[in-house]
Amino acid sequence: MAYEVPALPYPYDSLAPTIDEETMHLHHDKHHQAYVDKANAALEGTEWADKPIEEVVANLSSLPADKQGPVRNNGGGHYNHSLFWESMKPGGSEPSGELLDAINAKFGSLDTFKEQFEAAGVNQFGSGWAWLVLDGGELAITSTANQDNPITDGKTPLLGNDVWEHAYYLTYKNVRPEYLKAWWSVVNWDIVAERYAAAK
Ligand code: MN
């Protein structure tokens, strides 16, 4: 079955003022839809068309050579944005339990983790993503260009923030650091904890 853009799990205006309603409509209805349409077009007629998108993105080098570029960009875009919408909720939440313990053990404190994650987003030149991943059983911060995803490199994404300008420009203009700092107020740590528990 062809891929579809998943419905937002909350109203379009419910992440405001952190993320404004118009940005949510453009980002979800237009940008994500375009990735889905192009990923479907690239995979149509191949054995990969019916496979879960995370399996496709994890095995890019196994795809037909002429499909690898389009699927890396658009399949990656579909996977990254599906994960992104789920990673937020109105009002956000706070990490706790084993996940918070692991963050404190690895980064020293939640605040230090946030600073390093924001730096990864600020320092990602051009378009891309900042990530909290599980890498060999250890938490780590990384960033990727364009729509690349850590699973292509064998890492498990736990949390990702989209630092493409389309994610923040209407509200934050060119000031990406302000967007990265404000974003914590809508992060759904409950689902990050679920991903951590499933992956570790
Ligand atoms: Mn995006």
Describe it.
The protein is built from 8 helices and 3 strands; from the N terminus they run αααααβββααα. It is globular and about 50 Å long. A hairpin with a 2-residue loop joins strand 1 (128-135) and strand 2. It has 2 domains: 21-86, Fe,Mn superoxide dismutase (SOD) domain (Helix Hairpins, Orthogonal Bundle); 97-199, minor pseudopilin epsh fold. The two termini are 30 Å apart. Helix 1 packs antiparallel against helix 3 and helix 5 packs antiparallel against helix 7. It has 200 residues and is mostly helical. The mean pLDDT is 97. Manganese (II) ion is lined by residues 27, 31, 81, 162, 164, 166-167.
Mean pLDDT over all positions: 97
> In percent, how much strand structure appears in the residues?
5-15%
Q: What is the top-level CATH class of the largest domain?
A: Alpha Beta
Give me the CATH fold name of the largest domain.
Answer: minor pseudopilin epsh fold
Report the uncertain regions.
Answer: none
Task: Compose a concise summary of this entry.
The protein has 200 residues and is mainly α.
